[in-house]
Structures are given as structure tokens and as C-alpha cells.
Amino acid sequence: MSGEGDLIARLRALAPHPAARGLLDDAAVLPAPVGRDLVLTHDMLVEGVHFLPDCPPGDVAWKLLAVNLSDLAAKGATPIGVLMGYGLTGDTAWDAAFVDGLARALTHFNVSLLGGDTVAQPSGQARVLGLTAVGQAPAGGVPDRRGAKAGDRLWVTGPIGDAGLGLQIALGQIEGPRRLLKAYRLPMPRLALGRALAPHVSAMADVSDGLLIDARRIAAASGLAVTIDLAAVPLSDEAKTLGLDPLTAATAGDDYQLLFATSSVDVERIAAEHRAAASPIGYFEEGEGLALVDAGTPIDLPASLGWEHGA
Amino acid sequence: MSGEGDLIARLRALAPHPAARGLLDDAAVLPAPVGRDLVLTHDMLVEGVHFLPDCPPGDVAWKLLAVNLSDLAAKGATPIGVLMGYGLTGDTAWDAAFVDGLARALTHFNVSLLGGDTVAQPSGQARVLGLTAVGQAPAGGVPDRRGAKAGDRLWVTGPIGDAGLGLQIALGQIEGPRRLLKAYRLPMPRLALGRALAPHVSAMADVSDGLLIDARRIAAASGLAVTIDLAAVPLSDEAKTLGLDPLTAATAGDDYQLLFATSSVDVERIAAEHRAAASPIGYFEEGEGLALVDAGTPIDLPASLGWEHGA
Known about the structure:
2 copies of one chain form a homodimer. Chain A is built from 10 helices and 12 strands.
């Protein structure tokens, strides 16, 4: 398969880190960061599930990297490198465009490809892509989903729902500005902000499957109840113009904002220093489960809280 | 999807390592081993490509772990934990049997599940599974595929071709003893032997895609030529009984023996201490490429050297 040989040759160019051993060895060999923990995450993308078949391949590569780096961001970690699992379906033009996009994304985030695997998938089947990201933990400890305290407020680092609208645009269901499509296809992990917030939060996660489901996971992991005020959920100007309602926004997923619990009053300022607007959208208390209010009035939970596709 | 909820609950039981954070966080947080490098590898298995659709799910789980641990073995590394990417196709009985097998395999190798992702795959499509294994490097340095020296002999740690025969048995093409089927479905990574050999080799890899192709990769990565004597390739008694010829054995793949270059004379004794029989099967010299001899007589290379499915 010369297509695969070409692909691997091109991937080698993305693997300058000595740990990658030029992608010529069975494994990557990474010097452990002195005195720091390592943060490891693995997320997959499946064609037709996590990206649309007509999504530009370079955008798929960006998203594959970005969703994993977003998990590192939620832990305040600094990316070191990634290992990729790539399913080949025989479309060499797609592969080439994917690698171009991967090169741009790796360069943007200053991350090296360290290793991985390319495998043949039966042709005509949905592409399956996996990525493992390795990062260096922050010096002061790694925020955990399990650390929220009763009395903490729940915060989010930026607008919710833009990616959901972007998906509707990509599907041709609505028309809307290109920035929303970009929010869906080219999410931006909040790496610097995550590092800055990490020492000030009691729990942190990223919003990947939907604000409600991700908030409920923090509450469940922390053994607490969480209440979210939909009226406080930040929406972008574009989303408001399109008439997005906060409940739809809060169940849409793919936002990749950071969601955190803290009693600190500094986080608004820290976010502002990173050109982000952190919004308090709820609070934790003794008990369990998720409750919704709208400007103080309790409202029913929707049938689906978001994407229940995995941990 | 309650099936998925059950699956994740069962996976949590396989993740006792504190680094896994109970699979409740976005990422695993691993204390870096003091003074040791980390070895990282990621291999995938695709249904119909790397395992047959009728393979028992528990055996697929074993193989997914074993092929990755074999890469660690080839680096002399000690496994710490794994992150798994698991494609759900809606067959909850299959998933349950897979998790049972994964539990057995993780226990056998004393490895913890640290994290990962479960994703929905379109139903009816070939399952795609990925695994990232993390190990602690040996104290004396990590053998590299690129380190072979002119004058080194090429060694292999045990019989070649059993797994290829096991595949033929699984396909119903031949009949043969159950041990050969097991060699295909339940490969045994040479972890202890890899650790013992690591200080004594100049290059090491595992035999995954076929003896010839893996030997050629060591030679190419080291900038050398390698000659293999087919008459010296070790075959099991069962393989001899079935009339396996050494060239077929050397192109069959999935053996997961260790293949290494060294000028040491100690390796035969070290292997024997690990109840393995290391065989010298060739040598490296200045030049490039792979040459075959049969008891000294040059023979032509076959059209296919093995599985060219990736790095």
C-alpha cells in the first residue's frame, strides 16, 4: 500500500520530538517530567457520530487533537505529545488533507506526534480515529471532577450552544454566521486559561457532551447536588440573534468551554486576563442530582441532558 | 443507553489504580516514575482485519492488551496501565464478554485500566478497538529499533509461524492442535524476557507483522543490511508436524516473539533462564535491505514480506 507508506512518511515529519524516535520504533520513550505528574487522556471520533462525512478532513484532524487537548486543559495540564490511531479507508486524498490539517493543529498547539498506529478499515465504513494526549500536570495539583464542595458556585468560561448551532448549519438545517460553524468544527481548547484557573478551582471539567450532563457528572463525582440557572447560561450574540434558547444550548455539547466549581472570587478576573468571560451559572449543595431554575423558577429537566456517548 | 452505562460501571472495576481517578475524571493523572523514562505505545485491532468476527470477545480483549504489552516488552518496559478506546456496536452480550476477558487479561499482567473512551459505531460495521499502554522504562536505557550494529547477529526468542497456523485453523482452512489456535488468539507478550534482554541488545522489536518485515524494519532503521537464514528459523514441533515451511512462517505475522540484534553471547543463557529458546537466525552488515538464504544458499524474497498494515 504505497498510500499508507506515503502517509507514514508524512506523519514522520510531524514527529520531531526525540521521544517519538522518528516513528521508527515500537513505542515512544518519553523522559518523565521531573517532579510533575503526567496527565493522560484518550478520546475517539467516529464519522457520522462525532463529525459529518462531508467535514473537511483537515478540520477533523483539528477536532481530534482539540477535543483531547481540551481534557488536558480541564486538568490545567500542558500538552507534551500525542499518539494517534488512524483508520485507513483507502481514500488517499482524504488522508493527505487530514495530515495537512493535523500538521497545522500540532504546530498551533506546539505538540509533537509521538507514535500510534495506522490500520486498514473495511472500505465504505465510518472512519474511526483515536488520539491519546499526554500532558504535564500543573505544579500545584491536578483539578479533579470529584473535588466540588457544598457552597461552591459553578462557573463556565464562555458561551454555550455555539457548536450546537454550528452543527445545525453544517447539516443545512439553519443558516448562520461562519463563526458558529467554526465553533463546531474547530473548537479551541482553553489550555492557558485551564492552567491559570487550576490552582483556584475545587473541581474542573470541559463541556464536551453538554453543559447539563457535564455539570451533573461533576456533582455526581463529588457526591453533591448542583443547580443551574438557565437564565445565567452565557450565549453569544450570534446565538441570541438566531433565537437560541438556553435549554437547547445547555444540552447541545461540543462547546469545549471549561466548567468548574470554586468559592474563589478571583476567577472572573483570571478569566478576563485570558480574554474570556467566566460566568457563574449555578451552585453546589449537599444532596444529589441536577436541578434547573430559570431566573429562580424551578423548571423540569429535559428528557435528554446531552450526548450520553461515554465517559 | 443503559448498556453503555453498565459497561462503564464494569470498566470502573478494572481501574483500581489511583491514577485512573475511578474513571470519573476527564483524564488519568499518573505520578511520573522517579528517574525513569515512560514508554508509550498505541495499537488498534479492527474486526475482520486483526481478528475474525467469530473470535470469542474475551480473546479479542486479551489480544488487544497483549499486542500493546508486546511493544512494551520489546522495549524492556514494565507495564503501568492502559487507556482503551472502545467502539460500541450495540451488542451488549459481546461487550460483557469482552469486559470479562479484559478483566482476566489485566489481572494476569497486573495492569490497571487508567482511562479511555467508549464511542458509538454505526451498527453492522467492523468493530474498531484501540489501546494505549504506558510502561516504565528499564533503568539501563530503552532498546531502539535503530541501534543494530554491523556484525550483530539477529535473534528470535521462540517459534515463528504458530500464530499463522492458528489463523488457518480459525478460518477452517486446516485442522490442528488447539495450542496453535491459542498462539493466534491469545498471544503472550515476552515481558520478563524483554526486561532481561534489554541491557544486552543493540536493537529490539517484537514480531507482529511478520519476521521478515520486522527484521527489515530493524535493518532499515539502523541503516544496515540484514540476512536471514530460513533454515535457522525455529518452528514448533506442531508446526513441523503440519509441514509448515520456514518461508511461510517468516511472513505470517502475529508471533509476538522478540527479535533483537546483539553481539552478546549471553542472550541464549538469559533466554533459557526465562524458559525460552533464543535462536540466532541471521546477521547485520553494512549495506541495506533484506536477503534470505536457506542453509547458505541465496533464495529470492517472496512477493509479500508480511502484513504491511502500519508502523
